[in-house]
Amino acid sequence: MTSSRSAPPAQQLAALVERWPIAGAFTISRGAKTEAVTVVAEVSQDGLTGRGECVPYPRYGETPEATLAALQAMQEPLGAGMDRHALQAQMPPGAARNALDCALWDLEAKLAGRRIWNLLGRSTPAACTTAYTISLGTPEAMAEATARAAHRPLLKIKLGGDGDGERIQAVRRAAPNAELIVDANEAWTADNLAANLAACADAGVTLVEQPLPAGNDAALAEIKRPLAVCADESVHARASLEGLRDRYDAVNIKLDKTGGLTEALAMADAAQALGFDIMVGCMVATSLAMAPAMLLAPQARFVDLDGPLLLARDRDHGLRYDGSLIYPPEAALWG
């Protein structure tokens, strides 16, 4: 008598590029854009479909076309039974793996008929405060935009180099009661670092994100930092954490950098063990990209998941935002 192990149920993969208009324009030190280009992965099994969304980022050499191709190349491994754990070795960290990893999480929850936090043995995520982003512009334009958002408790201010001292002063005058965090997007230099950090400290800024270019940030270890500094472009997955301890006080965990929720959850634990504060961040995208990141919010000092608030419209069943409060996703969206 012989026996054979049954093959795992076949999973079908689909991937598509979507374009979502931004309300106005979103401007950082590297330029402005008027739409968010996202890539969605859909994995189907037994009549159920799990979804995940990513944002290919040119800063890391990613394009929508290459991301789509990378996802399509995963159909054969999926058909052969590749699961979420095997995926971590099959694809490198980045946007493509993020979309597929989150789609597999969503499908896993749907097949089990349970919410993801229950599968993880965690409590239901509570509503939390998200930062709201003020785009880079002249001091006058940024003050005007800040005044419209001054009722929000946490504002993230995009800076860009020359004139940043005047920008942050104008923002602070326009929002005297808001907590401010700053994102320089690698635009400062070793020469203006101390002056810009001092200007932010004088304005009561709580944290500065990625002031110097990744790979050229050694000056952060050589000065007395007057406020907390957070790594973004300098940190990706867990392997990048150890080398940042002398330069940064916090790390921004984005699923598009870690390559999905699986690595992001492990990275959050590793970062805390090394003494880093955590920011959970996002690219400009729909609620489908924000939803998995909500699982990291309980460990985060700062939550920056305002992507849908910057769009002209969100997808159906999007996250609920009440002012700056963001609520966990409904099952119809994800997880």
Q: What brief labels describe this structure?
A:
single chain, 335 residues, alpha/beta, Enolase-like, domain 1, TIM Barrel, 2 domains, eight-stranded parallel sheet, three-stranded antiparallel sheet, 11 helices, 29% helix, 22% strand, globular, disordered N terminus
What features would you describe in this structure?
- With 335 residues, this protein is an alpha/beta fold.
- It folds into two domains: 108 residues, Enolase-like, N-terminal domain (Enolase-like, domain 1), CATH 3.30.390; 199 residues, TIM Barrel, CATH 3.20.20.
- Helices cover 29% and strands 22% of the residues.
- It has eleven helices and 14 strands.
- The strands form three sheets. It has an eight-stranded parallel β-sheet.
- Helix 1 crosses helix 4, helix 6 runs parallel beside helix 7 and helix 7 packs parallel to helix 8.
- The longest helix is centred in the first third of the chain and has 18 residues.
- The N terminus is likely disordered.
Secondary-structure blueprint of this entry?
Blueprint: E1 12-28, E2 31-45, E3 48-54, H1 64-72, H2 75-79, H3 84-90, H4 95-112, H5 116-119, E4 128-129, E5 132-134, H6 139-148, E6 154-158, H7 164-174, E7 179-183, H8 193-202, E8 207-209, E9 228-231, E10 250-253, H9 255-258, H10 261-273, E11 277-280, H11 287-293, E12 302-303, E13 321-322, E14 325-326
Parallel strand pairs: 5-6, 6-7, 7-8, 8-9, 9-10, 10-11, 11-12
Antiparallel strand pairs: 1-2, 2-3, 4-14, 13-14
Helix pairs in contact: 1-4, 6-7, 7-8
